[in-house]
Amino acid sequence: MDVILHVGSHRTATTTLQSHMAEHRTELGAGGVVYWGPKVARGGLFRGAIGGVDRIMSWQQRRFNGRCAMRAEAVRQTGASHLIISDENMIGSLRATLEDTVLYHDAGRRVSACAGGFSRHRLTVGLCVRSYVDWWTSAMAFRLSRGGPLPRTDLREHLVTQPRRWRHVVEEIARVLPDATLLVWTYEALGDKPHLVLEELCGIATPPSRAMRRNASPPAAELRDLMRTCGIDPLHFHWPEGKFMPFADHEVAALNAQYDEDLAWFANGAGGFADFIDAPAAQTLNEDAERTVDGRGTTNDPDHRNLA
């Protein structure tokens, strides 16, 4: 059986994809695909892994792995060919990312802990990335309404200068799960096309989603009121087209340059660590070319696609 862990990230239309899979659960079931969303993941499946992997004892990890293995085996025995598990907290929490001002600093360890119970199955990990300007802005806006950190100058400077990039997150996950297939796509290309992402994940075609955007950031008026309440003048920030923009022009330029480097890395092979599915046809590697030293396997390995 194929087990697919959709690990997020946050603020990349994860709820939209989850809602689409839940809406089409019947079609998925008819195609041999079982979908478990955050209610299952947080309702007991990943108890002991999500939210505190640094405090897990070895016996707790073994018990957790055994629980996941038993539940996956029960699914396999129903005749299912795919099990999709989606929860963005597998990769870490949005709160911790902002508090630490580092992009998912323990993503590899967390995802590895969640994947431990599925070692008997073919494993795929799905990750969506987003431009740093929009991602950090959305993260700050979302957390601000929930008591998150204020978008002051020192926070923004830390976010711009923190060295961890999406490509580091991808490489870290790939290294801790060397036998897994890692699929990466961008919010810009596929965030509003959950049916295409779902088809890439499990091969099941579903109609384009017509649902409203889910779990959106607070509206600008609400953010302005929150800032005034916290003693921040909203006029210190940009509000292009009425939207919150905490970064100055030079910060935007720096973040965009960082994201461009990431996209070039993905498009040029991602070091053999991931399959970049924004435009699969354009990313196919030469059949006779071997993967890089840091990559996993060679092109004659039938269990891995040769995409970048």
Which key phrases capture this entry?
308 residues; alpha/beta; Rossmann fold; 13 helices; disordered C terminus
Walkthrough of the structure:
The chain has about 300 residues and is α/β, with parallel strands linked by helices. The protein has a single domain, classed as Rossmann fold. Helix content is about 45%, strand content about 10%. It is built from 13 helices and six strands. A six-stranded parallel sheet has the order 2-3-1-4-5-6, with helices on both faces. Helix 6 packs parallel to helix 9. The longest helix is centred in the N-terminal third of the chain and has 19 residues. The C terminus is likely disordered.
Short summary of the structure?
The chain is an alpha/beta fold. Helices cover 44% and strands 10% of the residues.
SSE blueprint:
Layout: E1 2-6, H1 14-23, H2 25-30, E2 33-36, H3 38-45, H4 58-76, E3 82-86, H5 94-100, H6 107-115, E4 122-129, H7 132-144, H8 153-161, H9 166-176, E5 181-186, H10 187-190, H11 194-202, H12 220-229, H13 249-267, E6 275-276
Parallel strand pairs: 1-3, 1-4, 2-3, 4-5, 5-6
